[in-house]
Amino acid sequence: MASQLILLVFPLALFCPLSTSSSDGLWAGSCLAVETAGDVLTSPDGTFNAGFHPVGQNAYSFAIWFNKPSCGANNCTIVWMANRDQPVNGRGSKLCILKSGNLVLNDAGSIPVWETKTVSQSPTHLKLADGGNLILRNFEGLILWQSYNSPTDTLLPLQPFNENSKLISSRSQGNYSSGYFQLYFDTDNVLSLMYKGPEFSSVYWPSPWLLSWEAGRSTFNNSKIAILDSLGNFSSTDNFTFLSADYGSKISRMLKIDFDGNIRLYSLKEDGETWVVSWQAFPQPCMVHGCCGPNSICIYIPNFGRKCSCIPGYKMKNHTDWSLGCEPEFHLSCNQTEVGFLKLRHVEFYGYDFNMYPNVTLEDCKKMCSQMCDCKGFQYRFIKAHESDGIYCYPKTQLLNGHRPPNFNADLYVKVPKATVSVYSDTSQDFELQCSNQVQQLERKYSKIRENESLKFALWVACAVGGLAFLTIFLVWCFLIRTNGNSSPKEGYLLAPTGFRKFTYAELKKATNNFSEEIGKGAVGIVYKATLSDGRVAAIKRLIDANQGEAEFLAEVNTIGKLNHMNLIEMWGYCAEGKHRLLVYEYMEHGSLAENLSFKALDWKERFEIAVGTARGLAYLHEECLEWVLHCDIKPQNILIDSKYQPKVSDFGLSWMLNRGDVKYSKFSRIRGTRGYMAPEWVFNLPITSKVDVYSYGIVLLELVTGRSPAMGIQVTDNESPKEERRTLVAWVREHMARAKETETWKHEITDPKLEGIYDGAEMLILVTVALRCVQEEKDARPTMGEVVEILLRHESH
Ligand SMILES: *[C@@H]1O[C@H](CO)[C@@H](O)[C@H](O)[C@H]1NC(C)=O
Ligand SMILES: *[C@@H]1O[C@H](CO)[C@@H](O)[C@H](O)[C@H]1NC(C)=O
Ligand SMILES: *[C@@H]1O[C@H](CO)[C@@H](O)[C@H](O)[C@H]1NC(C)=O
Ligand SMILES: *[C@@H]1O[C@H](CO)[C@@H](O)[C@H](O)[C@H]1NC(C)=O
Ligand SMILES: *[C@@H]1O[C@H](CO)[C@@H](O)[C@H](O)[C@H]1NC(C)=O
Ligand SMILES: *[C@@H]1O[C@H](CO)[C@@H](O)[C@H](O)[C@H]1NC(C)=O
Ligand SMILES: *[C@@H]1O[C@H](CO)[C@@H](O)[C@H](O)[C@H]1NC(C)=O
Ligand SMILES: *[C@@H]1O[C@H](CO)[C@@H](O)[C@H](O)[C@H]1NC(C)=O
């Protein structure tokens, strides 16, 4: 039947070759011309177009793009390109199916720049299918060539990714030519990301310091196939899988390796006009190698991108190029009595270790590094690894790949001349230039940002240096592994395996002794203490009004369960059975900040640590995770305290989970949060952004300092008028602060009496200043949590 139809159509096609916009496709002997605007192929459902797309001045590429979001000349969502590296002229260029069966793209003057090299005895036919696949078939319907088999930087749902596929990033935003990052199956059958520059290459995902199984990958299945299904489930034969955050809905999606080296899954929002990120490989962009040069720290700033900054005592080597990194401002003597160390908190420099020394005291580690002339500093950290727990000292020959990983609770010590330790210990020098064109907006709006030629070059060089660096690390590391024969402490560099799992209801019922010991009650559920079968003590939250389907619940729990930060409470698992929805968390012996503030005397140092830790946890939620992980109910009751008086934020992700769809489009139907901690946006029905959490955090800071609850209001007796009034906590602190110029006693007047006057005046000033900035009415005037962390870490006085 079908062949009869083709037989009918075929002679017609011969007589009137198609050359206009068509979803019928193109027959052998016909062409699409670059000059004719209507010469595009459209998929039957209208989702995709294929045709010539401008990529520069008078430069065109043959491409496939989404028709929605509606696009003009330079804002189309392109998913495939035939000639990304060799654009053709805007006049005289053509894509033609030759009678021989070859599909050829000719530049002006009939110079072929791209071809499928297909041969067919029978006439061939080119058609754009619904999924965005451009297919060349012979007359019998056999597929000769398809664009799905040669992707550029994007993978569409149901497009198989296999051994021969490779996604290669664009050079930059707006320049579609091949960049330096690629996704591929390596020879061990593992789906990997690699930086591949002109001179060096290095794999950066899965984390190179992990063995495949440690990264959750399997090397056994050599069929090497990965696919994203139409509901948002990505799975690969190396056992790597993820679910899109909006898993379950059939919407437009695309998996793309972005020009910044990250892979992201984009979903088209319901409005059909904006792409949002629904999954990404790297929550922390500074993990992608090759941005900042030696002796500098990569930091990620929301709405801006990555930045580099020199470590104290170092200055930028070349003011036009961050990839060259920083050089010392001092001359370092080889005489060990003349050197000292500066501590950089939570900073990690990866690789370049001389060796690793277990169970060494800080003093011995300093001594060791002082004695080695080439030692630039050392990493000193506690590592929890099976059978080899301990403190490890890693003296370093080079300080490269510096950044502040969210889970990193260890310090880096930089070697500087002893005489100048005090000079450099003021680390408040500001972060300078931006390091590259790798700007990706946190808003995850898929917006285009113009880039700059010289920065492009900088990136190129940065990557080259990064590659060399990596090669060296790898060699050094291999050497160390061989000589040491003991790799386990390296495992400490990974997150402890979370053991995140599903529990049965019966199991949890037993663990909580039939839900007998209630330890807390919140807006979303009741919390019970439990002892799991393996002996661990857990806190089990039973959600009150979770009436969503199991698949949706699972997708969200998976998202939340994967968040891993030392200042976020850890989720061990969940239970979804029938109507029951329960979450299993680690249990915090010391209870909440609220309890600690009212019953115990937290000293100043503990309070400051709690302020910093809480900010780090929230910054991670807001800035390094996907956009909708707002907390929306920050208050001392939701900040738990561990045995070392480190704070752990709890209950994150729940407001989203219980109001799916609402939060995503920042239209909350009901007011959430707790009186006293709620930002004005709630009251005035303004858009809800991460700044609502910043506001609540500011109030918590004031409470930490003053020991007064914001819900109560504060009774004041004004000097001028003897009438008694009630003030809000914020107004009360602002008034005292305003008097600061006249008198220094304000600090004493507002501090928590439980502190008995023992506090650090400078830290106190910074906490109050930050708090008041956080509680400004205008949300845009408030800092981001990331900025808060930077400010607090900079001013921490030790
Ligand atoms: C894109 O980058 C490549 C390589 O740097 C360069 O040759 C090309 O001219 C750029 N294209 C555009 C349109 O800027
Ligand atoms: C793209 O540009 C066209 C016209 O230039 C405009 O109508 C459309 O709204 C733009 N789309 C986006 C997503 O900016
Ligand atoms: C794949 O992952 C699942 C769960 O994450 C695990 O149970 C299974 O053993 C893994 N398979 C292989 C071959 O590693
Ligand atoms: C490898 O993966 C494919 C596709 O998922 C599957 O059909 C096959 O059974 C797997 N092979 C082995 C040995 O696990
Ligand atoms: C996702 O796909 C994989 C492979 O087909 C399957 O094993 C897994 O159960 C799917 N996950 C969900 C939640 O459907
Ligand atoms: C910095 O680098 C640029 C470009 O590589 C070079 O032209 C310039 O001379 C360098 N400046 C210094 C001070 O080395
Ligand atoms: C190292 O410096 C100390 C004091 O600065 C000095 O006394 C000592 O002689 C020096 N040692 C060497 C080997 O130069
Ligand atoms: C370090 O010391 C601890 C406590 O003494 C011990 O348990 C551990 O095994 C030691 N680690 C190594 C690598 O020697």
What would you say this structure looks like, in words?
- The chain is of the alpha+beta class.
- The protein has four domains: 2-150, Orthogonal Prism (Agglutinin, subunit A); 160-282, Agglutinin, subunit A (Orthogonal Prism), CATH 2.90.10; 296-431, Hepatocyte Growth Factor (3-Layer(bba) Sandwich); 594-798, Transferase(Phosphotransferase) domain 1 (Transferase(Phosphotransferase), domain 1, Orthogonal Bundle), CATH 1.10.510.
- Helix content is 22%, strand content 28%.
- It is built from 16 helices and 46 strands.
- The protein has a six-stranded mixed sheet with strand order 37-41-42-40-39-38, sandwiched between helices.
- α9 (604-624) runs antiparallel to α12 (691-706).
- The protein is globular, with a radius of gyration of 30 Å.
- The termini are far apart.
- Residues 1-21, 427-498 and 658-671 have low confidence and may be disordered.
- The structure holds 2-acetamido-2-deoxy-beta-D-glucopyranose (NAG) (8 copies).
What's this model, at a glance?
The protein is α+β, with helices and mostly antiparallel strands and 798 residues long.
Report the count of strand segments: 46
Tally the helices.
16
Q: Identify the CATH class of the largest domain.
A: Mainly Alpha
The low-confidence parts are 1-21, 427-498, 658-671
**What is the residue-mean pLDDT, rounded to a whole number?**
78
Q: What best-fitting shape do the alpha-carbon axes yield?
A: globular
Beta strand %: 25-35%
The neighbouring-strand order within the major sheet is: 37-41-42-40-39-38
Name the CATH homologous superfamily of the largest domain.
Transferase(Phosphotransferase) domain 1
Give the helix level as a range of percent: 10-25%
CATH architecture of the largest domain: Orthogonal Bundle
Q: How many whole angstroms does the radius of gyration measure?
A: 30 Å
Sheet having the most strands: 6 strands, mixed
The small molecules bound here are: 2-acetamido-2-deoxy-beta-D-glucopyranose
Write down the domain tally: 4
Q: Which structural class do you get from the secondary structure elements?
A: alpha+beta
CATH topology of the largest domain: Transferase(Phosphotransferase), domain 1
Termini gap: 82 Å
